[in-house]
Structure to design on (144 residues):
């Protein structure tokens, strides 16, 4: 009999406490409902840009039958552009003429009038190139 009373008491207590909690939650919800919807700030985008060393670009201009600058120094992996500012097509090839075997990276090929060719140099050393269509027009690039 004693345990029955205790159990009944516990159940009653549980009901009372439970009801109290439910009521409390309801009033809590009412009080906090306006503030519980605070906007989540969008996470600030972390800068995920890679820490690559920026590739530098060097420009050579062809005009008046010559390359400017006639000698250029770049770092391995740099890109080089040759802009043909003349009225004629040129054909940039590695030395020596006519076999063009020193550095295949300099076998750029034909660049039409007004056009620019861009290429990347990785092989280190000093290399000559020329306008294959007029092989006396030459330039030098040193790749470090
Ligand atoms: Cu040539």
């Amino acid at each position: 009999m004693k345990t029955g009373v205790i159990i009944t008491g516990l159940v009653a207590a549980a009901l009372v406490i439970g009801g109290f909690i439910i009521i409390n939650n309801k009033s809590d919800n009412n009080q906090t409902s306006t503030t519980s919807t605070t906007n989540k700030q969008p996470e600030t985008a972390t800068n995920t840009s890679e820490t690559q060393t920026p590739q530098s670009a060097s420009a050579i201009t062809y005009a008046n039958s010559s390359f400017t600058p006639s000698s250029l120094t770049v770092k391995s992996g740099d890109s080089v552009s040759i802009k043909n500012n003349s009225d004629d097509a040129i054909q940039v090839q590695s030395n020596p003429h006519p076999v063009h075997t020193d550095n295949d990276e300099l076998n750029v090929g034909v660049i039409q009038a007004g056009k620019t060719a861009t290429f990347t140099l990785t092989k280190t050393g000093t290399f000559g190139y020329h306008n294959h269509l007029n092989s006396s027009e030459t330039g030098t690039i040193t790749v470090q």
In short: Confidence is low (pLDDT under 50) at residues 6-12, 15-25, 27-38. Residues 2-32 form the longest helix (31 residues).
